[in-house]
Amino acid sequence: MGTNAPQEDPIVKALKDYTTCDVSDALCKLKFPNGGFLSGLTMWSPQRQDGPTKVVGPAYTVEYAPLSDPRPKWPSHYIDSVPAGAVIFVSCPPQIPNAVYGGLMSTRAQYSGAVGSVIDGRFRDVQEQRDLGYPVFARETGTAPPAELLKVVGVNVPVKLQSEEQRDYMAISPGDYLIGDLNGVVLLPKNLAERAVELIPKQVEADEKMAVEIKKGMSFVEASKLFRL
Question: Which residues are listed for substrate binding in this entry (predicted)?
């Protein structure tokens, strides 16, 4: 009997077996800056830096800007067009005390089938997020909504990461893959995804063999020479 359910993205399916560190190792071999690590973004929900939560999916990006920005405000609410399987990435200008994401956003995102949200700024309604069991990674928390300072000016557009150390060169584009777990959040550009997925299993297997021998007394240097290419 047939089904109309969309097929799972093979990249997403492959990445579910691995950690953000595994993905970063592959991206380092591919010479992508910082192994794709997005600094300053940590897990707040469903638990604070605890538990087995992992999110993997293509980025659905949202750009906030100051009210003074000449671009018009986005005519509808971005949360109502989130595709199933997406990781929502909300970009906020730096040094903004207001939250740009709240519990109702996650309620709608969860209903739409989004797998998690990454907030490059502040978010609020922490307990509500946790009660939903919905994964949220963010820079910090807040209490006030964004309307007095900010407006949405773009949806599914490239956005720059707002951390000081990466602002000049790290950007997230729609459809790039985002992977989040206890270690943080990693960006896997879609043009590198297939190559990274090919590298990861070999790396993980080598590290597992190293761990076995190190536990038996082999030195790290010796194990590296034996198993790592």
Answer: 102-105
Annotated binding residue at 210?
no
CA angle 137-142-88, nearest 5°?
Answer: 30
Q: Is 154 annotated as a binding residue?
A: no
> Which two structure tokens, joined as six digits, stand for 222?
């010796």
pLDDT, tens digit, for every residue of 75-116? 999 999 999 999 999 999 999 999 999 999 999 999 999 999
Question: What angle is formed at CA 83 by the lines to CA 80 and CA 88, rounded to 5 degrees?
Answer: 80
10-190 has which fold? Glucose Oxidase; domain 1 (3.50.30)
Annotated binding-site residue? 105: yes
The answer to whether the annotation marks 124 as part of a ligand binding site is yes
Q: Where are the domains of the chain?
A: 10-190
Q: How many CB atoms lie within 10 A of CB 17?
A: 12
Query: CA-to-CA distance for 77 and 68, rounded, in angstroms?
Result: 20
170 is in an annotated binding site: no
Q: Work out the number of other CB atoms within 10 angstroms of the CB of residue 13.
A: 12
Please give the torsion angle defined by the CA atoms of residues 92, 94, 95 and 100, in that order, rounded to the nearest 10 degrees: 10
Q: Model-level pTM?
A: 0.93
**CA 119 – CA 92 distance, rounded (Å):** 8
Structural tokens at position 4: 């109309």
Query: How confident is the model over 142-180, as pLDDT tens digits?
Result: 999 999 999 999 999 999 999 999 989 999 999 999 999
Which pLDDT tens digit goes with each residue over 12-46? 999 999 999 999 999 999 999 999 999 999 999 99
Neighbour count for residue 207 (Cβ, 10 Å): 17
